[in-house]
Amino acid sequence: MIRAALAAAVVAGAGLGCGGQATLPAEVAGADTALAACRAKADEDERLACFTALHAVTPLEAPPTVSDARFAAGVGLFTSTRLSGTGTVACVSCHANNNAGIEGPVTIGGRTLTRALHPSLRGGAVDDPANTRSIARNAPDLVNKLLGGPRVMFHDGRVALDGRGGFLTPMGDQLPPGLENLLAAQALVPLLTRDEMLGYAPGSNGGRSENAVAGLVGDPVETDPWPVWNALMQRLREDPALFASLAAAFPDVPADRLGIVHVANALAAFQTRRWNATGSSHGFHGWLRDRTRWPLAAEQRRGALIFFDHGGCARCHHGPRLSDGRFHNLAVPQIGPGHGRGALETPPVDRGRHEVTGQDGDRYGFLTPSLWEVRATAPYFHNGVYDSLEKTLRHHLDPAAHARAFRCERDAPLAQDGVRVACRDSIDAPALYADMLDRLAPELQGPPALSEQEIADLLAFLRTLSNGNNGGG
After folding, report:
1. Is the fold of 2-60+280-462 the same as that of 68-103+139-274?
2. 340 phi and psi, to 5 degrees?
3. By mean pLDDT, which of 15-24, 208-217, 278-287, 372-381 is the weakest?
């Protein structure tokens, strides 16, 4: 009963990764006893099995069944540029098909290039400085998006379940009926986002090329999305092969009734079938399924014990998705142009979840990501500030120190074409950093003291969180 109660409390969101001293909430009756019981087990595999049970970590369930026709339509739509305002950008432009659904970082001279605005979206010349501006948010991975019962999507959770069988999105009551799941609701948002798929109207923001779709609506686009969605559907109808594929995916829907909701459902179906780790016997997932048949190496097992015990990582990275589905402030260095209202401030800032809720307690909070395929999802954090898993882990272990020590000139990534990404550090934006650190997630205060060997073991474990099918190094 104690173990069941503890697991339920953890899944309910009792605790972010790799920080703090306790790994279970002290207020849960029996927590110390249960942790002590796990620690007392002499065999490392038995000890790890005990910890994973406490943190409700189980093998991932099977994904929803996706028909071949839905998958084929989704592939075509995912790779088609017809869904962008300019007709030059596709989902695959930012979500690579062979690497956990993201593009890995590119380095030049040892410096990472962050993702810049696609040149065609703004409409300027290739060498126009406006086209080397980095986008505000890092493209999230697409692994296991519907598994483990997620309730929100995006770094700031702006797409969410409403608790009544519907969805909360920036489109409000403009959302079309018939969306099959949360991922389908999410798929509609990039089509309306100027820096992702829609682009800018001719003459705005320095743009010089035609983008009739982007000019159909003003800002915020989400309040009047139908002119854009209808224009994109018209483009799809002008592509006989692509539209035939969409019709085949929904054989019970008359061709003249196919709409943007079917595009969203097909995109979600493709992503669900393409990126999942459910049947894997690889790494930690294999160990969860049968630890005798698929054992972990000694250093991986040691790292797992650190992760679930004194490293504190499982405080927020728990459950089948290795995520609590909540939002936390990790004092991530502020790079990029800022986001939403924060982009208009001096200095520009990204306040994360606060942009969605307006709640003071959500300032600088971002969604705890699932850790499946974490080895393949660089660059890390919501803004892609770190290009390696080790840098990201070390920030988790002492976020306050790393935030203070971060220096734009030395540590910030570069934008494409060698232009340094916009950046603020604790020297040139002291008030901003003081505010972030004052609001640092409680779970990351009082960081654990890990040796270099323990950090190496922890990294070895994190690299086992893969199904061996999504690329990455």
Report:
1. yes
2. 60, -135
3. 15-24
Q: Helix (H, G, I), strand (E, B), or coil: what is residue 431?
A: helix
pLDDT > 90: percent of the chain: 67
Sheet with 159-161, strands from edge to edge, namely 152-153, 159-161, 167-168
Outline where 12-154 has alpha helix (H): 31-39, 44-54, 68-79, 119-122
Task: Please list the residues that pair with 414 across neighbouring strands.
Answer: 113, 420
Which token pair is 70? 């839905």
pLDDT (mean) for 296-318? 96
CATH class of 68-103+139-274: mainly alpha
* pTM attached to this predicted model: 0.90
Single-letter code of the amino acid located at 463: R
d(CA 360, CA 363) in angstroms, rounded, equals 6
The architecture (CATH level 2) of 2-60+280-462 comes to: Orthogonal Bundle (1.10)
pLDDT band at 7 (very low <50, low <70, confident <90, very high): very low
DSSP string, 299-352: HHHHHHHHHHTTT-GGGTS-TTTT--S-EE-----EESS--GGGGGSSS----B
Q: Which residue has the tokens 């972030």?
A: 436
Check residue 99 and give its pLDDT.
Answer: 76
Domain layout of the chain by residue ranges: 2-60+280-462, 68-103+139-274
pLDDT at 125 over 90: no
Which letter, b or e, does each residue of 337-374 get, where b requires 16 or more Cβ atoms within 10 Å of its Cβ? bbbbebeeeeebbbbbbbbbbeeeebbbbbbbbbbbbb
